[in-house]
């Protein structure tokens, strides 16, 4: 891999965006390699949680602007589509994902973080969708995902001004889940990830599916999916273990079956 570093530390799988001299700008190669890195961890039963972060001072400053000069109408569409499809893929994987935002998360970098389930940011990080200042607009899903996370008013403000906001403000508006000093970021993220890694994987996968698919459905369809999914969780060994452990006053040991 040229643009990312993949590190297995079971039950965690770490992916480091690794173009620090370009502030981890996302090029076509990185889009391809991120998909490979994610797939490697999805196939690995020992990896329960995937964490994406950046090497150097940025999480990612967005799509690689130096590639934009070569784009025409058709290739721009294809480039945006390939980035956006990667984000769709990441959002819908059946293992929990965490974006550990170590610094700038801008444009496509923020769009990548928004495709993850949880965002934990360093106090020093800055977040934004500055594409408008390039005479374009967000192209990796930002126009749709930001509004779902923070509501229409704040989403429009961020996209129309292109201004960056500090991590604390991002936490206040619901864009990040947690903010910690940079020095504690890795440990806090690891603690959070370990908590998720202990949860029953079938419940995890179904909660993700119900939230991600349900949000775009008429509520009755989503509610019916929720009820139907109960038939699936109640057919798992983990459900028996969870209920027995509660009744026997002990900690459940989930096996993912
Ligand atoms: C999905 C879509 C459409 C998109 O994401 S479009 C891109 C949206 N992102 C942006 O507009 C952010 C662009 N970057 C910046 O504004 C500034 O780099 C920041 C983030 C404010 C940081 O500023 P500084 O700390 O002064 O660092 P700066 O010197 O600019 O960056 C370091 C290097 O990374 C390069 N770089 C930073 N962001 C880049 C990007 N998105 N694409 C390509 N190169 C980038 C930058 O050109 C510089 O290269 P060089 O050393 O050759 O001059």
UniProtKB/TrEMBL annotation:
GO MF, one annotated term: hydro-lyase activity
InterPro entries hit by this protein: ClpP/crotonase-like_dom_sf, Enoyl-CoA_hyd/isom_CS, Enoyl-CoA_hydra/iso, Enoyl-CoA_hydra_C
Any one of the GO BP annotations: fatty acid beta-oxidation
Q: What keywords appear on the UniProt entry?
A: Lyase
Q: Where is the signal peptide?
A: none
What is the similarity comment for this entry? Belongs to the enoyl-CoA hydratase/isomerase family.
Protein name as catalogued: Enoyl-CoA hydratase-related protein
């Amino acid at each position: 891999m040229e643009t990312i570093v993949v590190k297995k530390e079971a039950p965690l799988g770490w992916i480091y965006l690794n173009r620090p001299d370009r502030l981890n700008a996302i090029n076509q190669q990185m889009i391809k390699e991120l998909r490979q890195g994610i797939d490697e961890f999805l196939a690995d039963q020992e990896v329960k949680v995937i964490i994406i972060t950046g090497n150097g001072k940025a999480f990612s400053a967005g799509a690689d602007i130096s590639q934009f000069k070569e784009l025409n109408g058709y290739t721009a569409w294809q480039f945006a589509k390939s980035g956006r499809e990667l984000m769709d893929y990441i959002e819908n994987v059946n293992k929990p994902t965490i974006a550990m935002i170590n610094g700038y998360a801008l444009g496509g970098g923020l769009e990548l973080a928004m495709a993850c389930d949880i965002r934990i940011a360093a106090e020093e990080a800055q977040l934004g969708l500055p594409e408008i200042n390039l005479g374009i607009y967000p192209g990796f899903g930002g126009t749709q995902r930001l509004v779902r996370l923070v509501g229409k008013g704040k989403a429009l403000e961020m996209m129309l001004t292109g201004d960056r906001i500090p991590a604390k403000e991002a936490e206040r508006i619901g864009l990040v889940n947690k903010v910690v000093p940079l020095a504690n970021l890795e440990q806090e993220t690891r603690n959070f990830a370990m908590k998720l890694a202990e949860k029953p994987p079938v419940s995890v996968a179904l909660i993700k599916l119900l939230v991600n698919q349900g949000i775009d459905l008429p509520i009755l369809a989503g509610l019916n999916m929720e009820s139907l999914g109960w038939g699936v969780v109640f057919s798992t060994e983990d459900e028996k273990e969870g209920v027995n452990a509660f009744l026997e006053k002990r900690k459940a040991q989930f096996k993912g079956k």
